[in-house]
Amino acid sequence: MRRIISFAHISLDGFVAGPKGEMDWIKLDEEIFDHVGKRISKGDTALYGRVTYEMMENYWPTAADKPRATKHDKEHSKWYANSHKVVMSRTMKGADLTNTRIISNKLSDNINKLKQSGQGGGEDILLFGSPTATHSLMQQNLIDGYWLFVNPIILGQGIPLFKGIKDKTKLKLLTTHQFNCGVTELNYIVDRP
Prior knowledge:
- By secondary structure, the protein is α/β, with parallel strands linked by helices.
- It has a domain at about 20-95.
- About 30% of the residues lie in helices and about 25% in strands.
- Helix 2 (about 50-65) packs across helix 3.
- The chain is globular.
- It starts with a strand and ends with a strand.
């Protein structure tokens, strides 16, 4: 069975964005892009909330075509075009969306079917950012791991990654990686009995 892994850049105090959704504090460089690209290339299914999906759709389909496209833009744009996208949304309609499925109800049932399906056939299903979707999945204990990029900053306020959790969730640390820019990767799996 495939796992749902929450992928997020976070501040040291656990925020994924500032109070108004600002993400200008996130440190990104080629070292991080290359590291992330290796893991992402092993999977072919991305899970998003509506807001994050719309942000991705506005950039990645044409990112590789821009005159100043970076190596990362070209590689991720190709991956994005070929990946199976699943969007958690009660308001989107998906009839004309290429390679995209909408989950609008029965969240637990649909996510468990996605985990068990051969759809995509890749390894982990990566949940990109999407704090509202992440909170919904956390509340139903549907996230299997956390792939976090801790940025060396304390925001003090903002949109938290962890919210609405009623019970303790034990985690097992799989790997860590320190990047030259000061970001630390923490790769956890949920330690279920």
